[in-house]
Amino acid sequence: MKISSINDTTELSNKIRMPWLGYGTYKASGKELIEGVQFALSIGYRLIDTAEMYDNEEEIGKAIKKSGIPRNEIFITSKVWNTNQGYENTLKSFNNSLKRLNIDYLDLYLIHWPVSGKYIETWKALEKLYRDGKVRAIGVSNFLIHHLQNIMDKCEIVPMVNQIEFHPHLVQKDLLNFCKINKIQVEAWSPLMRGRINDIPEIVNIAKKYNKTPAQIVLRWDLQHEVVTIPKSVHKERIKENANIFDFELSEIDMKIIDGLDQNKRYGADPDDF
């Protein structure tokens, strides 16, 4: 698949189109976040990822309004937090997210983590929101194969997206394959391993070869694996750099070198023990 522009999108299982590159906002807030979102939108980003837990939906809503870009051109994702899971709580959480973002609908709503004993009821609430037309697509975050299978066995709608920790030290090939077979779009959080990619010699060497930065190499690697990626930065130069990944393609050999760095190592929590 050729991904050659920031405007390129993937088609979800329900035919909704989602940008391949997005702007992550975890641990960002205040004026610098508002300016970061506005700048990202001004240079072509159209996917903005947030969550109830990030406590920044209000700022993102302000930035989107200030941007002047029509709402229907921006793909907005949010997530229900663990303490608000369950059927009724999820419906309330969703409405609160809409109020804070100051919008009428979400493009994508996710279950943030697979809270045992709750995520099935939470998913049923997402199904209702989807059927009621309040959200264009629904999905999950940090779900492993057995969590996804459980939803598929007990519910009616297959998740359209699974946002997971995905980077050169955590490739999760079996999960990727499972999602591909079941038409679940994988999305990477923490794609740059919180800056650790700059310390991996193999990635540094590949970056020199393409005259790119290690971050650009890894984000391109995501795209060539057909994984949506949402790097986070509030610095204009970095936001711009992260978007400059559409004018080159990694060779099959370099893709395999990066794949070979897999250590099944998490820098975030384990979805089976969080």
UniProtKB/TrEMBL annotation:
Alphabetically ordered keywords of this record: NADP, Oxidoreductase
Pfam family, one: Aldo_ket_red
Site location (Lowers pKa of active site Tyr): 79
Family note: Belongs to the aldo/keto reductase family.
Protein name (database record): Glyoxal reductase
Active site as annotated: 54 (proton donor)
Keyword NADP: yes
Domain NADP-dependent oxidoreductase: 22-262
EC numbers, comma separated: 1.1.1.-
Amino acids binding substrate: 112
Enzyme class: oxidoreductase
UniProt GO MF annotations: oxidoreductase activity, acting on the CH-OH group of donors, NAD or NADP as acceptor
Record keyword NADP present: yes
SUPFAM superfamilies assigned: NAD(P)-linked oxidoreductase
InterPro entries per the UniProt record, alphabetical: AKR (IPR020471), AKR5G (IPR044500), Aldo/ket_reductase_CS (IPR018170), NAD(P)_OxRdtase_dom_sf (IPR036812), NADP_OxRdtase_dom (IPR023210)
Taxonomy, superkingdom: Bacteria
PROSITE patterns (UniProt xref): ALDOKETO_REDUCTASE_1, ALDOKETO_REDUCTASE_2, ALDOKETO_REDUCTASE_3
Source species: Defluviitoga tunisiensis
